[in-house]
Amino acid sequence: MTAIDHALPIAVIGAGFSGTMAAIQLLATLPRSRPVLLCERADAFGRGLAYATRAPAHLLNLRAANMSAFSDRPHHFEAWLAEEGAEGVRRTPAGTFAPRGVYGRYLSELLRQALTADGLPRLRLVNDAVTDLEPSGGGFVLRTEGGQAHPVAGAVLAAGNLAGPGEPASRHRVDPWQPERFGRLHPHLPVLIVGTGLTMVDTVATLRGQGFSGHIVAVSRRGLLPNVHEPAEAWPAPNLTTGDLASLSALVGRIRREVASARAAGVDWRGVVDGLRPVTDFIWRSLPAPERDRFLRHLRPFWDVHRHRTAPPAAQAIDEEIARGSLTVLAGRIRAIADEEAHAVVTLLPRGEEQPRDLEVQCILDATGIGRVSETQDPLLRRLMARGLVRPGPFGLGLDAGPDYRALGTRGGGRLWTLGPLLRGVLWECIAVPDIRNQAAEVADLVAMDLERAEAA
Ligand SMILES: Cc1cc2nc3c(=O)[nH]c(=O)nc-3n(C[C@H](O)[C@H](O)[C@H](O)COP(=O)(O)OP(=O)(O)OC[C@H]3O[C@@H](n4cnc5c(N)ncnc54)[C@H](O)[C@@H]3O)c2cc1C
Fold first, then answer.
1. From ligand 1's centre to the CA of 17, what distance in Å?
2. Residues 202-216: pLDDT tens digits?
3. CATH (residue range 173-227+310-366)
């Protein structure tokens, strides 16, 4: 690897949770002479897709006890919450759940502290979309949409959750993350949400928060709703054998037996699912590729609704909607959409039925979740793929990367690291705060070691 100028910054691309924490950890780990350039295309730093919301009904889906930004200070967020006296915090028998906007404020506050720490302007904020990394010397020239060019020693790609494929195609389709674009909704025509997971739960809250009082229909292939958090004792991670990991069916059988043993001991299935967390990546890596593929095609929705659970107040709001008949959750497929001037006619085939039904809706909200790298239209990722600096990882879910978080491309490795949801596929547990906070600290150590070696060369 080429030697590198000791005064060039390390760039961090994206200032959601991953990029914010990577920048904070880099500032703590790199020598004081090395600046950090944190680039974010959205208006706000330290929020990202998950924590930009200001809606009080959008609650964190993890307990406050699990949301510290630092793994070596596990009570950091809870202590901040207590000191802040933040509004909208919900205390339930299953734990404390804060609004996601409050968590965004916590991250912004950490960033503000990092900006003013040690009296040195080492953290530079660039409020622009990064469009390219042009290899130069041992590092890159980072280019932005607004025409800026910054020479950098290396970069950490923290671009996070990718936009979905933009389906179903309809002029009435609206992005659930852009509520300002919902327009004026009329109570007499239903709204269709495609997807029945956590994003659907949020979208229902957003619609009601905007005063929409009409009927909401949510559809997904299986119509599965996320489970709710409940108090659950921890159950130890199972000692998995080679036989357990030989196939998906062997693994599922083993986990079912584990759940039965837990139940016999008075422990809820949630304790077993949570207990798997430390070994989930090991399981993912150990399963043969065809079995991982089977998991993605058949089992993933079931895993997701058990693993990614809702805060009790959010689940209660959905239960009440269903009981009132103001929300209908359907299992089925969309067969066709015919756009009319003021509405769309959606043809749905309910699961297990032979006759499709037509549904007139005034808008369609795509809550099917996060896009895959292999299908992304993201200009930066497409540019980096064209340059051979990155490539899609297993199953095209995220980017390919080594165990040292270094992005793998078709040309030799550069000083480009990645973390967070972009690692989906290489890792399985990489999208939530407890995973990303560890990755951010590890990436910072690895970048520091790499630069130290290069400076010594
Ligand atoms: C709605 C939602 C709720 C969630 N709730 C929780 C929760 O309660 N608890 C939990 O642990 N996890 C939760 N998650 C998981 C979440 O993925 C992680 O907690 C974390 O927020 C991921 O952060 P990120 O920075 O990797 O991604 P993102 O939040 O997607 O942030 C990426 C950032 O990069 C910026 N960016 C992208 N490309 C560029 C570019 N080219 N130039 C400049 N900037 C760029 C984007 O604008 C964005 O701000 C939630 C996820 C979602 C989507």
1. 6
2. 999 999 999 999 999
3. 3.50.50.60
